[in-house]
Design a protein that fits this description.
This protein has 175 residues and is of the alpha+beta class. Helices cover 49% and strands 12% of the residues. It has helices spanning 10-47, 49-52, 85-88, 129-168, and strands at residues 71-73, 93-97, 102-108, 114-119. It has a four-stranded antiparallel sheet with strand order 1-2-3-4, covered by helices on one side. Strand 3 and strand 4 (114-119) form a beta hairpin. The longest helix is centred in the last third of the chain and has 40 residues, at 129-168. The relative contact order is 0.13.
Length: 175
């Protein structure tokens, strides 16, 4: 018994191919826009690292070729509230370096050093541009929420330093 298969007409097939090509082009353009936004967010987050309390990754924990530049972890227990499902399922650690590049650190040794550092691009380690952009936007929102407290803390330190200056001004020595 032979089943019949309906084949689309050449016109219908050409129309389908044209629509799929348009979808692929739009997907590529959207990914490029997301990657541009990720670059801007990572640059901002590098500046916000103090407010976000991002821990610096010790150079001895990095492969030799990566030790010359600073890296800060974009993940941690203190950031678990804003972690998205994609970030929670990431096998490795997300980091930003002093050149504002997002990297994925993976494949740890038994001593805790990272063997592999991969520059993030869409789909690396299963992390899409959309998922990373969502997480970086959440970090930015968190920094905005924490900024007033950080500023108040700096103001208190500034007042303490000003008060200490009054005590250390030069006076004639008593004998």
């Amino acid at each position: 018994m032979q089943q019949t298969v309906e084949a689309p007409t050449p016109e219908a097939l050409a129309d389908l191919v044209a629509r799929c090509a348009q979808i692929n082009r739009y997907t590529t353009q959207l990914t490029a826009v997301e990657e541009t936004r990720i670059a801007a967010l990572s640059a901002g987050i590098l500046t916000m690292r103090g407010v976000l309390d991002l821990p610096e990754i010790k150079s001895e924990r990095l492969p030799a070729r990566q030790r010359r530049i600073g890296h800060w972890a974009l993940m941690g227990h203190h950031l678990s509230d804003v972690a998205t499902p994609a970030i929670r399922h990431l096998h490795g650690t997300l980091a930003v370096d002093e050149h504002e590049q997002v990297k994925i650190l993976s494949n740890r040794t038994w001593r805790g050093a990272w063997r592999d550092i991969t520059l993030w691009r869409d789909g690396v380690h299963g992390l899409s541009a959309h998922d990373l952009m969502e997480y970086l936007a959440a970090l930015t929102t968190l920094a905005q929420d924490r900024a007033p407290d950080s500023a108040r803390e700096l103001l208190v330190r500034s007042k303490s330093a000003a008060a200490a200056e009054l005590l250390t001004t030069a006076r004639p020595r008593m004998r």
